[in-house]
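stage 2 :: seqdesign
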């Protein structure tokens, strides 16, 4: 991890192509939603990469080939055996872009069985992918009728929800109001920072799903504010309802996953924070599902956004300015599994204080 926030990207770097990861458990309606989106002008010149678990892929046959840029990745789970194929497909698309082919966006539709974390790691680790693309966000679909049972039985589905930038409830017309309400509350508890959207028959405006990551610095302020404000909801929910979700049976995978936000009034030393993040990810990577933050760093006038998935962190991004009216506090949102808040907060504050002391000693010298 770099020990200082990077400078703005050089002028010679091409404008990175946004990549949207579309995930959700089996039967959640990903293909239906994708077909609707591809008819919209906002998704013009979009390349679609589709992965389906099994020897014969079918999803690519169900997606209307509007411009011929639909690529079926080799059969297998995108989170393991075909990660190399994902990189190869993105590299091939990059060559086509360089040759003048109009590709303004990429959508990766994952198999419903996929753990999304390795997919995000792939998008954040390959040098050429990092140079040509930016992860725009993770959109997770949840079936309103079967979502609760799926979350009970499938830990992958819980992780898909936990790492999402947008949660889209589908098939709510097939569920009772009580089912929808209970699922809504459960999704909010799992991921308080992601807006909850509703899509009937795949009908949803693309603007609600696009540009939802941290990487377009000129457009992130409303969304950054939205997910940073999740702390108040999460703490209020815990206060009002106690720890009721921990009392369910052992199949409730989300009892092991929780989200919280740490805030810091004073500017943070980047050296201390970066070192602590390295230690955390080296020792407990399997527990770090996702980290997102907007930071007020010592010596920096502009906010710095960071984003990580398990042991990989995207290079920090300097935002153009602080959101209007913001109090300029640093805020870090964590989505963790089997790792308590106290351990994380104690470690971060200790490393930050150590860095400050070392800087003070160096200044005296």
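stage 2 :: out
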């Amino acid at each position: 991890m770099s020990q200082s926030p990077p400078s703005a990207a050089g002028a010679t770097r091409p404008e990175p192509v946004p990549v949207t990861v579309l995930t959700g458990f089996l039967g959640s309606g990903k293909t239906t939603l994708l077909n609707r989106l591809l008819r919209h002008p906002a998704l013009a010149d979009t390349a679609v990469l589709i992965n389906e678990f099994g020897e014969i892929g079918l999803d690519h046959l169900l997606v209307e080939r509007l411009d011929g840029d639909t690529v079926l990745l080799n059969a297998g789970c995108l989170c393991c055996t075909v990660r190399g194929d994902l990189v190869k497909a993105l590299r091939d698309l990059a060559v086509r872009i360089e040759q003048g082919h109009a590709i303004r966006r990429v959508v990766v539709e994952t198999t419903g069985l996929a753990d999304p974390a390795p997919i995000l790691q792939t998008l954040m680790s390959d040098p050429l992918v990092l140079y040509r693309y930016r992860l725009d966000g993770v959109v997770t679909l949840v079936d309103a009728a079967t979502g609760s049972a799926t979350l009970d039985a499938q830990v992958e589905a819980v992780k898909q929800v936990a790492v999402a930038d947008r949660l889209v409830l589908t098939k709510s017309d097939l569920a009772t109001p009580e089912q929808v309400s209970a699922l809504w509350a459960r999704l909010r508890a799992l991921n308080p920072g992601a807006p909850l959207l509703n899509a009937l028959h795949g009908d949803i405006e693309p603007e609600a799903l696009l540009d939802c990551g941290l990487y377009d610095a000129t457009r992130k302020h409303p969304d950054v504010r939205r997910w940073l404000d999740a702390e108040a909801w999460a703490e209020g929910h815990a206060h009002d309802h106690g720890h009721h979700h921990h009392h369910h049976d052992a199949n409730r995978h989300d009892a092991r996953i929780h989200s919280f936000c740490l805030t810091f009034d004073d500017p943070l030393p980047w050296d201390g924070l970066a070192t602590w993040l390295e230690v955390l990810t080296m020792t407990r990577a399997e527990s770090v599902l996702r980290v997102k933050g907007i930071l007020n760093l010592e010596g920096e006038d502009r906010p710095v956004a960071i984003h990580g998935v398990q042991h990989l962190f995207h290079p920090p991004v300097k935002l153009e300015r602080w959101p209007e009216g913001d109090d300029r506090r640093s805020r870090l949102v964590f989505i963790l599994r089997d790792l308590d808040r106290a351990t994380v907060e104690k470690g971060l504050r200790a490393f930050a204080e150590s860095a400050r002391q070392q800087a003070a000693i160096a200044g005296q010298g």
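stage 3 :: structure notes
- Residues 307 and 314 are 6 Å apart (CA to CA).
- DSSP finds twelve helices and twelve strands in the chain.
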